[in-house]
Amino acid sequence: MQEKTGIGTKKICTSLLVTGMRYSELERFRENQNWLEGQFIYLPRGSMLKVKAKQKEFIL
Question: Which residues contact 41 (CB under 8 A, 6 or more apart)?
Fold first, then answer.
């Protein structure tokens, strides 16, 4: 399997595993490399697009 995957795929998979990011988050980080400061990734307030799910109240 390792021979069939490209070098770019290996780099992406390694980046996802090391950072714990989702693929969509990694794509946004690649577009905004200024978020990286030293060894840390600082996300500005407006960078997170995921909305927290709210559980509907169930009444019997």
Answer: 19, 29, 35
Mean pLDDT of the chain: 79
Residues in the chain: 60
Q: Where are the alpha helices (DSSP H) in the chain?
A: 7-19, 23-31
- Burial code (b: 16+ CB inside 10 Å, e: under 16) for 23-36 equals eebeebbeeeeeee
Please tell me which residue, 12 or 4, carries the higher pLDDT value: 12
Q: For residues 19 and 1, what is the distance between their CA atoms, to the nearest angstrom?
A: 23
pTM for the structure as a whole: 0.59
SS3 at position 55:
coil
The token pair at 43 is 């996300």
